[in-house]
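anyone seen this seq b4? input:
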Amino acid sequence: MLRINRIKAISKTESGNFGFDYLLTDGLNLISSNTNTRGKSSAILAIYYCLGFEEIIGGRGKKTLTSVYKTVVEDEEQITHTVLESEAWIEITNGVDVISIKRTAEMEGRNENLITVYHSSLDCTHNPETYVEDMYIHSANSTTSAKGFHAFLEKFIGLELPLVPSNDGAEYKLYMQLLFSVIFIEQKRGWADLFSAMPVLNIKDAKKRVLEYLLGLDTLNNEKKRAYLKLQEAEIIQRWSLLTNEVLALCIREDCQIHGLPMRPCILDDNFLDKLSISTISSSATIDNELAVLDKRRKELEFKTPKVIDNFEELQTELEKTEAAIFDLENEQSQNRATLLQEKAACTRLESNLQVIDADLRNNKDAQKLKRMGSDLGIESYIGRCPTCGQEIEDSLLPIQNCEHIMSIEENIRHLEAQKTMISFALDAHRKNVEVCETNLQSLSGRIFTLRRLAKTIRSDLFAVDESLSETIVYEKINLENRIQALAGLKEKVDIRVAEIQKLSSDWEKHLAEKKALPKTNFTQSDKEKVDTLEKNFKDYLRCFNYKSVSSYDSIQISRENYLPISEGFDMKFDSSASDNIRAIWSYTLALLKTSNEKNGNHPQIVIFDEPGQHSIVTNDMVSLFNEIIEMEGTKQVILGITLNDGEIKGAVESIDSEKIHVVDVGNHAFQRIY
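predicted toks r here
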């Protein structure tokens, strides 16, 4: 929720200060002037400007403001005074907390895109205990950075703006300027058509996305869910293919083949493992049967040992060499493991350091950006304070009295970037060392395994009792051992990958269920009810405001494609008179607010109409507008900028109960001399 409690502006001249200070309330607020001058608009502009929404008006920065903020201000005697400095203020609330926002238009050394936020009411901004922070707008990261004003405002208001597709294929947060261009109808561009003041910010189907968010429709989430499921499907297919191809390659390597393994994702039966089998290509025997045969033969050979009397010493020497080699390799293995642990610890430490440096860089760059804009808050590295936490720092190993220079923000950024480069280089080196250690350990494990097997064979020969010498038996035993190890290893490796395939099958089943649960048209029943309610509310308001450009209100609908009003399948504006087009904008804007209130949408519950009585709107219809706003249920704040130069309109306003309407009379000039 957004509520504007107070708007204020000051323009300083050599002749003194000029400005205004107006209070606003819940419900209907009229900011009125007696003539169609810039006084009323100057007051309303303070709202746009302080919220960083001036793009809705048609530009950025102070160029969107009236002359009283930039060049000259006219006093009550029509004498002009040159503006030296100017600033705009607003006090807003989210229903719980109150903050005040200041943005300058003219001020030496302060950029117009710098915004100062006071965590207090306007009356308490000079309180020393008030927390103050500077932020920026209309710059990179202003919607995501901690120092980006719109990122802060989004959180303060309680909005959770979604990520939406852009025209370049990426995803960006739905910009607040787009959102508020639908509910802040400005005087010049806003009455041409619905969304006519919406800035162009590279968001695909921006109007549709804004309406989906305001109404709280599920369709955007459904679209994103559909896109996510499509990506998930591709990932499961890719992973399934990778695993099955690995299984095939492992089997072929060991002269085997696998049966019963589906090559594409599917829901596996409970008896899937019973149907899965591995057989040898040469004998067509299953791997279990082959292992049983090999194991039986190995046991037979255990009772047949070679004669070793003639080469006993040679075997003894070979065994000693083998055991020594094993000992050396195991030591090398232990050293590699220790080195691997050290290298991984170094990687973890450097990665943590990089995260800290990245955070410091972001904070320092934000501080640099704010400083360039003219901020003097929190930019204290040049006086020995950290720009991130405010703690006193010494950028030297020497005592502070020996330091001749404390790094500036720019120097600190260069220092941090140099550190980042150095640490990144060191991290790459340590990661390569990790890879080398892991490769060495893998090689060492294989070599140790081979030598241990050899040592076992030699010991078997040394302690043999059979007098018959058979090199064939030794060779066969070694081959048998190798084959048994290979097949057992194959079975283990295949089992691991089959277990992963089973998990993928479960993921695939969930994927199919989620895909089936999605509505075919992206529209949920809740969405249908909301759009139906919007259509009803829109038609009700059209009737109330005497919209006459159709023969029957039954021909009017809210399009289910883009949620905009159509008549007999075409844009309503084509058949609307100028005054009826204004009535349609009233109706649609209020219908959005009312529907959101009724159906728990995301509307910030504030609307601005600047000069809604354009194109000879009938007084009775204006009165109906006032009454419908007053009678609308739910929380709301509606601000109308209106010129009361018509006796009937003025009389109608005066006839409304003062407790139901709050009138701010700016007279002929909003900017009055401040004494």
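DSSP finds 15 helices and 21 strands in the chain. Confidence is low (pLDDT under 50) at residues 380-385, 395-403, 468-472. kinda curious what u guys think
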